[in-house]
């Protein structure tokens, strides 16, 4: 088991006598009871953004066309769009002045997104900021991306991702 607070790996999972388990295991059914409060999906139907709602009642609503009401909601829905490789949604929610011409998931190196933790989120007028840590694996190796993202509410009333500052980049 992986203890997020103390950053230690324990060899035996508390719910099964012989299962080796950690936060980054491929089968989150084993880890989820331990880290559920740390924004890791508890089961396959739980939204990848880390909230305990189903995808259909959480980010799926935004992916279907309902505007995200806050920068945090937009950021969570964009994280989920990366997990599900929803390129059109990512482009549609990116501010036009910073939007790339296309999304190419073939260039992502086989990223497997593992979880999201929102550190802080706030709004000041038509601007918003969300700081988060996203965990992922590439070629079996675990990584963390700590980003502070900026958002803007445009004339159409919708929030858009502007850019982000990645810690350590």
UniProtKB/TrEMBL annotation:
It comes from the Bacteria. Signal peptide: none annotated. Residues 70-164 form the YchJ-like middle NTF2-like domain. Belongs to the UPF0225 family. This is UPF0225 protein GCM10010971_22210. It comes from Silvimonas amylolytica. The lineage of its organism: Bacteria, Pseudomonadati, Pseudomonadota, Betaproteobacteria, Neisseriales.
């Amino acid at each position: 088991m992986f203890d997020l607070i103390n950053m230690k790996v324990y060899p035996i999972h508390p719910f099964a006598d012989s299962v080796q388990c950690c936060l980054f295991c491929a089968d989150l059914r084993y880890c989820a009871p331990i880290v559920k409060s740390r924004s890791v999906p508890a089961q396959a139907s739980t939204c990848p953004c880390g909230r305990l709602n189903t995808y259909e009642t959480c980010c799926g609503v935004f992916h279907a066309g309902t505007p995200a009401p806050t920068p945090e909601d937009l950021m969570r829905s964009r994280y989920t769009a990366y997990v599900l490789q929803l390129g059109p949604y990512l482009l549609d929610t990116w501010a036009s002045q910073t939007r790339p011409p296309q999304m190419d998931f073939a260039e992502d190196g086989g990223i497997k997104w593992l979880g999201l933790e929102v550190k802080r989120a706030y709004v000041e007028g038509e601007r918003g900021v969300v700081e988060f840590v996203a965990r992922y694996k590439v070629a079996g190796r675990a990584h963390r991306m700590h980003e502070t993202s900026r958002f803007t509410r445009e004339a159409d009333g919708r929030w858009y991702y502007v850019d982000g500052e990645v810690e350590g980049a």
